[in-house]
UniProtKB/TrEMBL annotation:
It comes from Pristionchus mayeri. InterPro entries: Claudin-like. The keyword Protease does not apply. Coiled coil: none annotated. The keyword Manganese does not apply. This is Uncharacterized protein. Pfam families: Claudin_3. Keywords: Membrane, Transmembrane, Transmembrane helix.
């Protein structure tokens, strides 16, 4: 019964983590200009130029080719994290439904969660190391900072660490049949 309750909590936390990861990944506030309306997303930057918003269709064409190596690394790690999170939710659901063999099939859950932590940690660390360059390149010498999307990814990393702890706890309870 305890493993079931922990797995329900794990599922809720993983859904939140998935929402944070996807929301941060696809939002356009990775880098922002201080005291200004300009901001840049990971994939398609938009900015206010001459009082008009840039046409996203023009900016987004060839977006992968214009990304720097660290931006590609961050994007790939975030996509890997999203895929791993979906797989973790599916595996969690399967193990919740498995009554008699739960103690045998639940073990990969903590490894899946740890893989999620690794993918998010790489994305967060790589962007943190290169954020000075990203800010300088985007703001063209004006003051800028990392945006809310990066902070959301940091929160997702924290949530994924909590998910890994919850997965390990669920495994422990499942092995003891409690």
């Amino acid at each position: 019964m305890c493993s079931f309750i922990v797995q329900i909590g794990y599922g809720i936390m993983m859904v939140i983590t998935l929402g944070l990861t996807a929301g941060g990944c696809f939002s356009e506030y990775w880098v922002q200009q201080e005291n200004g309306p300009a901001h840049k997303g990971l994939f398609c930057p938009t900015s206010l130029a001459d009082g008009k918003w840039s046409d996203p269709g023009v900016i987004c064409n060839g977006w992968w080719d214009r990304m720097k190596a660290y931006e590609r690394t961050v994007a790939i790690c975030l996509f890997i994290a999203i895929v791993v999170q979906v797989f973790a939710l599916v595996w969690n659901f399967i193990t919740i439904c498995a009554c008699c063999c739960k103690s045998h099939i639940i073990h990969p859950l903590s490894a899946i969660s740890f893989l999620n932590v690794v993918a998010l940690a790489i994305a967060v660390i790589v962007f943190a190391i290169n954020s000075g360059t990203a800010i300088k390149d985007f703001t063209m010498g004006l003051d800028g900072s990392v945006g809310a999307s990066y902070i959301v990814e940091c929160v997702a990393l924290g949530m994924s660490i909590l998910c890994t702890i919850a997965a390990s706890l669920a495994i422990c309870f499942a092995e003891k049949c409690v």
